[in-house]
Amino acid sequence: MARSCPISFKEIDGTIARINAMFITLLIVTFFITAYTSILYFLVIDLGVRLFGYYNFSLIFNFSKLVKKIFFLKTKMTDAGAKRLATFFGLFFVLLMSVLSNFHFDNALYITGIILLICSSLEMLFNYCLGCEIYHIYQKIKLTFLKVIMQKR
What we know:
Number of strands: 2
Radius of gyration: 17 Å
Low-confidence stretches: none
Shape: globular
Structural class: mainly alpha
Mean pLDDT: 91
């Protein structure tokens, strides 16, 4: 099975997605330094707003557009499917971090946060989507599972 990302045939600005990843990385690092859970709550709201398509209400998205405009960065269009999946994973990890923080499960919190930092840093620095790799593994497992079910019939 060839590597694949979810494809939506809708394109978004990949430059803004990378700037979004930069802000998420900075906010998670800030959370690790300060331990202010309000940062995590802000990220949950912002990622949720973007996941449901209300980009104009996302502060991170609006700041990203401003940064792109200030630094005259070029637009690089990319398929929205992979970025939507990455937003979903980001929301999941931030929600998990919020819960772990509230219950003071510090080791699990730091592991989860480091995983999110790695993912967002890879996107920010190298335009590499770890979510696509996870999606590929999911598709492979799903295909294997369907083959097993079909053989039992």
